[in-house]
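An instance follows:
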Amino acid sequence: MRRVIVTGSSSGIGRAIAERLLADGWNVIGFDVSPAAIEHQLFDPVEVNLTDRVATEAAAKAALPVSAFVHAAGVLRVAPLGMLDDAEGELMWRLHVAAATRIANVVVPAMAAAKQGRVVLIGSRVAAGVAGRSQYAATKAALVGLARSWAAEVVASGVTVNVVSPAATQTAMLDDPKRKSEAPKMPPMGRLIRPGEIAGTVAFLLSEAGAAITGQDIQICGGSSLPR
């Protein structure tokens, strides 16, 4: 049975990924601070606060063995220089970067020992830099650095590590009062990215067909990256 940890599985992109992988026959272990939003015989929900170091490491160890790890949990806080909030920045860092590191630190060495595994981190187009989103951008840029570094460490062990970076996506995050001051930027294609499109890319990267792709930051941007 193929087993995968998916963080943020109760909503948005994480839920779409979990549902797609369940449909593909994966046993999904969903890490989320919120109660489970999925009922499926192959879905094992784990309520865990991913900003809690001890709880996160314990949940990762309890989930072993797994053959894949997808980190989709996230929050978005926006503010310009002069209004940056240390607590908000720390929250994003702990959830996006520290949680990914703690889980990977447990599961990736085990994958490497088994000579197979897949890791996908959900990044963002914002990682390249966007006014008013510096703290968020910094955490998402850090995921690219982590992924490329980890990929270099385990490439010879049959483990791949990639980032999938969507542009503005149609999820409940867009309605978060913490970001109401700034509307999402519409991709040139004229609509927001759909969570299922991100899930499809993740499913491919976790498949045998994606075995030769590693250390990459794959943009799902609806044309946003075309201007140079």
